[in-house]
Specification:
Chain lengths: 250, 250
DNA sequence: TTTAATTCGATCAAAAATAATCATAAAAAA
DNA sequence: TTTTTTATGATTATTTTTGATCGAATTAAA
């Protein structure tokens, strides 16, 4: 019985009971207590479990895992429907930008098993995709705590170094006149990502279509595809401006 | 029977059983154990299987290496004592590097109320300092999921753009001969941060002092201050090399 | 607090597995 | 063909793994 196999067994028992005693393990695996003790020490050093006097505990019950949480829970159904449709366009081998909005965040759940590269400035996105098939490239720069995202000059320069096949971006408002953002930061970031992408998707639920906001940062020429649940004849206005509209129903 | 044929057979058996013993393989393929051993070594080097003592395992069966959160569970008392001492040296206005090791992570709790800038490649550090007085600059680049940190060429270039007054770094081992790391990534990162800092602190609990590891990546000239709980006359050896040793008791 | 019982870490020894060395056989190159 | 290189197996030295033992440290009980 090799160390690797014992480690497996130990983790299995740990998962089952939450905690285990050395005597119990020694009997179960059929090795001496000294060996079990050595195994536990090694595994604790590798962070696979938490060592206690006389045994071990599951790590999750001792230390809280790292987690960035995306709080924005508004209009989730619509956002999920939009993102599901958008995800259908993502194929293996794609390199995509995902911005730090609450809409684009919902995209994560649909792309976990795709073999793609994701470039993002959003900490919740990184956290969500950490244990997935996706390769993550995180934009560097100053961290904005309220948005849980990276912004600033360094960040935009970082974005400019990469080239993606698709960008999935949210906006604060979109009309035939152009794109609106809620802050300079958001605008700069959206713009930087869009400029480095072959195909720009705007993910935008119905509330924001036809609405303006604080800052108009670009006209519609930046956009290739608009994914929305806004089912209204007006969408033809966008199409005449050269934008493909993907309508979804909630 | 050529190597290629044997390799195929070995992978086949591995797929079937998940693990194999050398004796078993030698009998099955009808070659000596020495040859099997050589085959396994070669195949392991190419990442086709995981070598164990006495045999081999399927890669997927092997327990994932160091997950970062967990490693924080080892020797916490010593690490906290070390970090508390180190934090006493940090003053308002400082710009500091914090690396992605489990020791340096413990520093966060002591600096939350300081008016400083922290530059880091560690996601847990970012998470821990998100709601604090600290301004965070996150290194950008490829995300290493197991370490929950950012690494790669882009990351090291990002580091080179900044200049800090102090760097707080962990190592896998330190002797009078030099500094040791557990991987190329860790070494590159530590080195990059150290080179951009006016004063380099090595945070190192007693277990790692006097110990060597996988990779020696630099001599001691890189280091200015060693903070450790290693209370032994031998520390004078480091001091003769020009390093200030800050000893703490647990 | 003191005492007794565990548990731990260090050291040692035996067994197994590995790495290193060498000689031979097979294959490739000259 | 001869020479050189490569692959294999045998042999020996080294390393790793495991279990036993004992003093020190830790926990639980009195």
């Amino acid at each position: 019985m090799t160390f690797q196999k014992r480690a497996y067994k130990i983790l299995e028992l740990l998962e089952k009971f939450g905690e285990v005693e050395i005597r119990q393990l020694a009997a179960e695996i059929n090795v001496s207590e000294v060996t079990v003790r050595r195994d536990l020490t090694a595994m604790a050093a590798n962070g696979l479990l938490y060592r206690t006097h006389g045994g071990a505990m599951k790590i999750s019950e001792v230390i809280k895992p790292v987690s960035f949480v995306n709080k924005a829970g508004v209009n989730i159904k619509a956002k999920d429907a939009i993102c599901k449709r958008a995800a259908a366009d993502i194929i293996d081998g794609d390199v995509i930008f995902i911005d730090c909005g609450s809409t684009a965040f919902r995209l994560c759940q649909f792309i976990k098993n795709k073999k793609i590269k994701v470039i993002t400035n959003s900490l919740p996105v990184v956290n969500e995709l950490l244990d997935s098939a996706v390769t993550i490239n995180l934009i560097g720069g100053e961290v904005d705590a309220t948005r849980q995202a990276v912004h600033g000059t360094t960040a935009y320069e970082h974005i400019a170094r990469y080239r993606a096949s698709k960008a999935f971006l949210g906006v604060d408002g979109i009309t035939v006149e152009g794109l609106y953002a809620g802050s300079e930061h958001e605008a700069s970031n959206t713009l930087a990502m869009a400029l480095q992408s072959d195909c720009v998707y705007i993910l935008c639920d119905a509330r924001k279509v036809g609405k303006t906001s604080y800052l108009k940062f670009n006209d519609l020429s930046l956009v290739n595809i608009l994914v929305t649940d806004y089912n209204n004849p007006d969408v033809t206005e966008f199409e005449t401006k050269g934008i493909s509209v993907l309508s979804v129903t909630v």
